[in-house]
Amino acid sequence: MSAVKKWLEVVANPPRCCASCDHYATASEGWEEGATCKKFEGSPPREFVEEPNGCDQWTELLPF
């Protein structure tokens, strides 16, 4: 599989983790100290933020 096809597949199917969830409020992408989950109104631990398929409330990031 070419690199472009792999990239398009990842863009179409992002990993289901906090960093790619619309509920995760942060100033930048990825884990950030003090970032919060708007769904649970709390700050998840770093290990959970990076864990794929760790939350059943995951919502895809909205592009706008």
Care to describe what's here?
The structure is a single chain. The protein has helices at 3-12, 46-49, and strands spanning 24-25, 36-37. Helices cover 22% and strands 6% of the residues. Strands 1-2 form a two-stranded antiparallel sheet. The protein has one domain. It is α+β, with helices and mostly antiparallel strands.
Characteristic key phrases:
64 residues, alpha+beta, elongated
Q: Percent helix among the residues?
A: 10-25%
Task: Tell me the span between the first and last alpha carbons.
Answer: 30 Å
Helix- and strand-based class?
alpha+beta
Mean pLDDT: 79
Number of domains: 1
Strand coverage percent = 5-15%
Q: How many separate helices?
A: 2
**SSE sequence, one letter per element:** HEEH
Number of strands: 2
Rg from C-alpha positions?
Answer: 13 Å
> Strand arrangement, largest sheet?
1-2
- Unreliable residue stretches: none
- Biggest pleated-sheet summary: 2 strands, antiparallel
Shape: elongated
